[in-house]
Design goal:
By secondary structure, the chain is mainly α. The protein has helices spanning 5-19, 29-45, 54-59, 72-78, 85-98, and strands at residues 111-114, 131-133, 136-139. The protein has a domain at 5-106. It is globular.
Length: 147
């Protein structure tokens, strides 16, 4: 698999937009960032409608909320340069996971959502999460479902 600098940058921005708040928490930490990256890689490896590249998976409409224009994180992650210490950590995680240097800690998960949602997404109903990392619940769903 050919991973470009663009792929790594988009993955780092996705991690920052989706899970930066987990980094400083004892029950989330670095593992929360790795887990979100694992979901991206798992979706890409399915060779399905999610996308054939890391960037395509991350930017697929309505899949990662931080890329939705109405999400408050969108403006932050669209900036040319993100000047934040946690973004530097997200870049390191993105590089390592994209290079296959870290294992999949999500047990093959291809979906997740925050455990703090009042009403879980439709796709999560009648599904049991595989695990919880920080404030996120992770799932391995068959077929091509949107998150």
């Amino acid at each position: 698999m050919m991973v470009t600098l663009h792929d790594v940058d988009i993955l780092a921005r996705t991690l920052f937009g989706e899970a930066r708040g987990e980094y400083g928490r004892s029950e989330g930490g670095l593992s929360a960032l790795i887990a979100v990256a694992n979901v991206v890689m798992n979706r890409m490896s399915e060779k399905s409608w999610y996308g054939a590249t890391i960037a395509a998976v991350c930017l697929k409409p309505w899949q990662f909320s931080c890329w939705n224009r109405a999400d408050p994180n969108y403006v932050i992650i669209k900036e040319r340069i993100i000047d934040h210490p946690i973004f530097t950590i997200c870049q390191g995680v993105a590089e390592a996971v994209a290079a296959g240097q870290w294992p999949d800690i999500t047990k093959g998960s291809n979906h997740y959502h925050t455990a703090e949602m009042v009403r879980p997404p439709d796709w999560a109903r009648e599904q049991d999460p595989i695990l919880r990392i920080g404030r996120h619940l992770f799932y391995r769903l068959p077929g091509n479902r949107s998150s």
